[in-house]
Amino acid sequence: MPSLIPWALTLAVSALLALHVPLSYAQEPALKALRFDPATVPGGHRVQGTVELTGAAGPGGLAIALASGSPQLAPVPASVTVAPGASRATFAVDTRAVIEDETVEIKALVSTQSVEAELRLRKPAVQHVTLAAPSICDGVHDGTLRYLLSGPAPAGLKVVARAGVESGGARYFSDSAEAVPAGASEGTIRVSLARCTKPLKERCEIAGWARINSPAMGITFTASCGAAPD
Questions:
Q1: Exposure pattern of 136-175 as b/e (b: 16+ CB <10 Å)?
Q2: Domain residue limits at 90
Q3: Residue 137: inside a domain
Q4: What does the alpha-carbon distance between residue 26 and residue 4 come to, in Å, rounded to a whole number?
Q5: Kind of pairing, strands 113-122 and 102-110?
Q6: Spans in the chain with pLDDT lower than 70
Q7: Final residue of a structural domain among 69, 89, 122
Q8: What is the spatial distance between Cα 147 and Cα 41, in angstroms, rounded to a whole number?
């Protein structure tokens, strides 16, 4: 009677293989999406990127390669790793200041799979303006127009400013333009303010604005000239 030991060993090995095969050939989850929050940002700001998978990463995690279409404007790390059991990973992008609006394409890649997303960089805009002026009723004075930008300035950026007064139907305005130091997000411009016309006690309107591109951001306030000294 033949021995049953070889058959028992064969069945045991087959059972072990049956348990092992699904683990050996289990596929990693696929890339699902790449997104940025926010997707539109003034150049020079930090953005968070997120890579998402269709399922949880395996015991060893999953390394995902990253590539930027314009690394000089939006550099990305070479890769990001999804932790074991997780389905997403985040990474930071430190964008650069831009003098014109730019769109950068970012890709995430694993083997032959890839997903992509656009990151839109905006040039700085004037967000806030204040006008510090002395008493314009005392004569012709200079004023200081202070502006705040939406983001750091790139090299070569200029801010154009206008300030002046209106009184008795006459208008007095002066324009100024100054380069913004690279990396600065605020500054001041000296502007000339013409005096109110006589007779005195007229209502004067002081206006000032600053802009990089339209529309201009401005401020307006009023003042009344008192009686002139003898």
A1: bbeeeeebebbbebbbbbbeebebbbbbbbbbeeeebeee
A2: 29-122
A3: yes
A4: 34
A5: antiparallel
A6: 1-26, 132-142, 163-174, 192-208, 213-230
A7: 122
A8: 19
Residue 158 lies in a domain: yes
The count of residues in the chain is 230
Q: Do 192 and 146 have their domain in common?
A: yes
Q: What is the pTM of this model?
A: 0.69
Last residue in a domain, options 122, 138, 170 = 122
Cα–Cα distance for residue pair 53/7, rounded to 1 Å:
44
Tell me how many degrees the CA angle 25-31-33 measures, rounded to the nearest 5.
Answer: 160
Q: What is the pLDDT of residues 102-152, one digit of tens each?
A: 999 999 999 889 999 999 999 888 888 877 665 555 555 667 778 888 889
Asked if residue 12 is part of any domain, the answer here is no
Identify the pLDDT of residue 214. 57
Say how far residue 28 (Cα) sits from the centre of its chain. Answer: 34
**pLDDT for residue 11:** 39
Write down the pLDDT at residue 228.
40
Question: For the chain, how are helix, strand and coil distributed in percent, rounded to 5?
Answer: 10, 50, 40
User: What CATH number does residue 151 fall under?
Assistant: 2.60.40.10
pLDDT value of position 194 = 57
Statement to judge: residues 107 and 152 lie in one domain: no
Whole-number Å distance between alpha carbons of 11 and 6: 9
Closest Cα partner for 209 from 159, 169, 150? 159
Q: What is the pLDDT of residue 133?
A: 60
Pull the structure tokens for residue 33. 């999406």
